[in-house]
Amino acid sequence: MPAIGAVIAALSLTACSGGGASGGSADTKFVQGKGGVDTVSEENRKDAPKLSGKTLGDKPLDVADYKGKIVVLNVWGSWCAPCRAEASNLAKVAKDTKAKGVQFVGINTRDSNRAPALRFEKEYGVDYPSLYDPIGKLMLRFPKGSLNPQAIPSTIVLDREGRIAARALTPLSEERLRSMITPLIAEK
């Protein structure tokens, strides 16, 4: 029963959002950046949780299989207007950065069946995989005090070692998304 309460609490906190404010502290070791992008210095990054399951296309996917690549995780729902606003930006940057070792993975949440989410991907040209997480269980796996998803949409960027490096709790333009990824591409 406590797990159900935790899922309900998480879902109540993750209503479709036009943005959010968060801040860093000595405890979290992340810094709130301009434009709603929070970052973590390389020495203070925490490992991302295990994120695996079935995709919208009903294929198995484990984010850990992308270790060695920069992974951009985008939490979205087909019903979410800000998600629709940023979708084509994500799709374009995904295509532009793939050759640079960047892998995008969506986490589709709160869509009670796959059909609307699959239509969303087709409409906005999203050709990277999305984990299907209708009740938000994957979002609950992020460690407390990390840059965890707290709104829909949320975008989290993992470094090549699978550690949480950046987060945005707002819809992203191409420019803001690239500003999250470019410093990680430069890390060797």
Automatic annotation (TrEMBL):
UniProt keyword terms in alphabetical order: Cytochrome c-type biogenesis, Disulfide bond, Redox-active center, Signal, Signal-anchor, Transmembrane
Pfam families tied to this protein: Redoxin
Name this polypeptide is given: Thioredoxin domain-containing protein
Cellular compartments annotated: Cell envelope
Highest taxon listed in the record's lineage: Bacteria
Species of origin: Streptomyces antimycoticus
Cellular component GO terms, alphabetical: cell envelope
PANTHER family according to UniProt: THIOL:DISULFIDE INTERCHANGE PROTEIN DSBE (PTHR42852)
Boundaries of every Thioredoxin domain copy: 42-186
Signal peptide location: 1-21
Major location category of this protein: other
Keyword Disulfide bond: yes
A GO biological process held by the record: cytochrome complex assembly
Family annotation (SUPFAM superfamilies): Thioredoxin-like
Molecular functions (GO terms): oxidoreductase activity
